[in-house]
């Protein structure tokens, strides 16, 4: 891995390079995605079936879209029972963590008859998109579905593209069934997102769409935002490791590679205050990279977006980590909790030598759907928050309104909204 | 006001009619907005100044964009001191309510060395857009700025279009200064949104943009979503009143009109189980409408989107209210709190005869920036939540990782992510 001295210029160059991977920059596909979305909005199932034949290479009827109970049973027979066991173990941790995120309705009352509050309501229907293709991630199914379950969503609908045989990957089906998905439809791509946003005769309209996908899926989600809610648009995966001379170079190298293997756009960055560690990690990376099955992807992503940066000071290292706002941040330093207090921007923060990033991907409990591409500056991990919404509660007695009613009238009249003023005044006509 | 019998067909017709007002349907302006956004992204201040001359009719230099301390002092001299007093009174309530929305970092630990948690961090820089034009709403400034202040945002930047004299409306300046805005820039429209999203030499890049605006502002916010975060895209204002035979027809009529006066696209709907009340409210609306200063707007919005709907049953009335998912919902019934428990979708819920909607616009404390156009099914009122973000915290000891490390390896290998598996295995090489 290349080793660079960390300077303001290096940081800017890297930031610019990383931002080029943003799903916001793929404008050239926008018009074809918009055409697909519009077609599904207007023609429903007919459009879905045409696109499924065109893009997934399988001719289906509307009746075939819903995954049947017997297909789910068939899937259980095909999946290694060890995977089912590990899915169930992971689910316990994921549910337990997300339970702690629950938010509750509250109110505050004053003895003159004022009640103010905030009512929390789960979303009605949620759509979860699961990509198809060769890479199948049952963990992603759990991470997208379980927060919605914990939130108490009425119905969870999943869509995923079928293979050429018209079947869905069995691990996906098993994970969905274990997590408690209510309905699974065999359709993928921008057309699936449009179906979840507008509904078709077969696929229900949802209130919010979550889940990862390729650029067509990401652009379709952006196109339907406003008609429905969406989660943040996912970019390629990232890891940033902040390490000092106490770090184990072999652990750090292995963790960098765990993200580099995702795809050629993935980014793996080490920022260290130790030049010795920089050299050791670089050497360990070379050793591992040649042993691992996905070495082509790893080498490309490291060439494109992999860096070992040697910082002059700890402060500079931390500032740069906050600038980059990485999806995953490992702090492998002598005092990781102290450093954590200085971290403003990161999706998930892993502290200490045994908190390896894949622990968070599968097992620890926190969500692995995290803000990418610098969006940790303003977005949060997927959570129960994504599947609830709030309503304000306002209840005033006559006794409470009377002493302030003239203030409200004054304010409304300053804004030249006389009907607003009138609606307050009418309640005290007898006083006038 | 027209009185209709509430049926499934009526509801569908009304929903379709209301949804036509959605900012999502103004696609024809999209290309001109995208051009403005792109120009500001590439040419910064130069583009801002050109558009300000073109659209606001005032030639300025980059140095003139920032509102100066002396302009703020001048504004205080021009604003009625009674308005300043009422702004200060309202601020106490707004801050007090939003303080209750604060969320806190938490962690959970187990005695084998596991720490899981969620760190809450305020956003760094927030941009608040304030529309110009004839209608000036200092209340809107308070409602957009104060939640960000309560959240602890580092810097709040406001933009608002200048008049032809190059000045900003004094009430806007006073409200902004009272609320604690750090910098105010004189620029409006899509160009201001682009400046806040990408930054210019003069105007800082922000992490999130909030605030109402016309269709150009709404489309620009949608265009920059992903580069920055935005609040939900505001549509025209709405009120839905659920009332039974105990309601005061004069109060209900006045409240319907308070929203109808906003603009010709505003919607005011009464759903009642009482035919007598329906007739009385209709008569009161006619009386008031002719007395009020904004009667042209009121009559147009009532003709377009005003309805009195007579429900056959209470259940039907409530179901329809949930379908419409109104921005403002008043429950003027014998047992408003019981009915409230059945409300799933509404921006703000006002209970009882003295909780008039304008009380919430100005004074009670809850935010008046609310989801419109059916989006209360999945969006929430603007709140402190909008100005924070979360990071997951994961810390495992060796002792905690060891008993489960083979499960994680198994899961990773099932997903064919061998570098993920490797990053766990490397920590227990001595065991292998």
Can you describe this structure?
Two copies of one chain form a homodimer. By secondary structure, chain A is α/β, with parallel strands linked by helices. The first copy, chain A, folds into three domains: 3-22 and 236-364, Nitrogenase molybdenum iron protein domain (Rossmann fold, 3-Layer(aba) Sandwich), CATH 3.40.50.1980; 25-230, Nitrogenase molybdenum iron protein domain (Rossmann fold), CATH 3.40.50; 396-431, no CATH class. Chain A has helices spanning 8-19, 30-43, 45-56, 69-78, 81-99, 138-151, 170-179, 189-198, 215-224, 249-260, 275-291, 295-305, 314-324, 336-340, 357-362, 398-401, 405-414, 418-425, and strands spanning 3-5, 106-110, 114-122, 125-129, 155-160, 183-186, 208-210, 229-230, 238-243, 267-272, 306-310, 328-332, 348-351, 388-395. In chain A, strand 9 (238-243), helix 10 and strand 10 (267-272) form a beta-alpha-beta unit. In chain A, helix 2 packs across helix 3 (45-56) and helix 5 (81-99) runs parallel beside helix 7. The longest helix of chain A has 19 residues, at 81-99. Chain A is globular, with a radius of gyration of 26 Å. At the A-B interface, helix 5, strand 3, helix 10, helix 14 and strand 13 of A face helix 5, strand 3, helix 10, helix 14 and strand 13 of B. Chains A, B: This is Histidinol dehydrogenase. Chains A, B: It comes from Eubacterium oxidoreducens. Chains A, B: Its EC number is 1.1.1.23. Chains A, B: Pathway: Amino-acid biosynthesis; L-histidine biosynthesis; L-histidine from 5-phospho-alpha-D-ribose 1-diphosphate: step 9/9.
């Amino acid at each position: 891995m290349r080793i660079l001295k960390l300077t303001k210029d290096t940081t800017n160059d890297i930031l610019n390079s990383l931002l080029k991977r943003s799903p916001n920059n793929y404008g050239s596909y926008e018009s074809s995605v918009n055409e697909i979305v519009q077609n599904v909005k207007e023609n429903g199932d007919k459009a879905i079936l045409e696109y499924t034949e065109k893009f997934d290479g399988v001719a289906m009827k509307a009746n075939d879209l819903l995954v049947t109970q017997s297909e789910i049973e068939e899937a259980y027979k095909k999946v290694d029972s060890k995977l089912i066991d590990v899915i169930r173990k992971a689910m316990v941790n994921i549910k337990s963590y997300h339970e702690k995120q629950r938010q509750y309705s509250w109110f505050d009352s004053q003895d003159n008859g004022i009640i103010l509050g905030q009512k929390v309501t789960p979303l009605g229907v949620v759509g979860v998109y699961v990509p198809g293709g060769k890479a199948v991630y049952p963990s992603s199914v759990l991470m997208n579905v379980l927060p919605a379950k914990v939130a108490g969503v009425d119905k969870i609908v999943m869509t995923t593209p079928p293979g050429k045989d018209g079947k869905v990957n069995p691990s996906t089906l098993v994970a969905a069934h274990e997590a408690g998905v209510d309905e699974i439809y065999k359709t993928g791509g921008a057309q699936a997102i449009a179906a979840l946003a507008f509904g078709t005769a077969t696929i229900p309209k949802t209130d919010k769409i979550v889940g990862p996908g390729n650029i067509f899926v990401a652009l379709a989600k952006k196109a339907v935002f406003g008609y429905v809610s969406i989660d943040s648009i996912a970019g390629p995966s990232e890891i940033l490791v902040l390490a000092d001379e106490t770090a184990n170079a072999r652990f750090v190298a292995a963790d960098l590679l765990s993200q580099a293997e995702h795809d050629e756009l993935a980014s793996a960055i080490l920022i260290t205050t130790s030049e010795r560690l920089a050299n050791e990690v670089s050497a360990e990376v070379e050793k591992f990279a040649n042993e691992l099955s996905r070495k082509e992807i790893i080498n490309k992503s490291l060439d494109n977006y992999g860096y070992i940066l040697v910082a002059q000071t700890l402060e500079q290292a931390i500032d740069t980590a906050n600038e980059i706002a990485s999806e995953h941040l490992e702090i492998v330093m002598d005092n990781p909790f102290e450093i954590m207090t200085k971290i403003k921007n990161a999706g998930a923060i892993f502290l200490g030598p045994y908190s390896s990033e894949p622990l968070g991907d599968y097992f620890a409990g926190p969500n692995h759907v995290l803000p990418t591409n610098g969006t940790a500056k303003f977005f949060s991990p997927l959570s129960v928050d994504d599947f609830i919404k709030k309503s304000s509660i306002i209840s005033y007695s006559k006794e409470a309104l009377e002493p302030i009613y003239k203030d409200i009238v004054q304010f409304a009249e300053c804004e030249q909204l006389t009907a607003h003023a009138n609606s307050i005044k009418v309640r005290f006509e007898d006083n006038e």
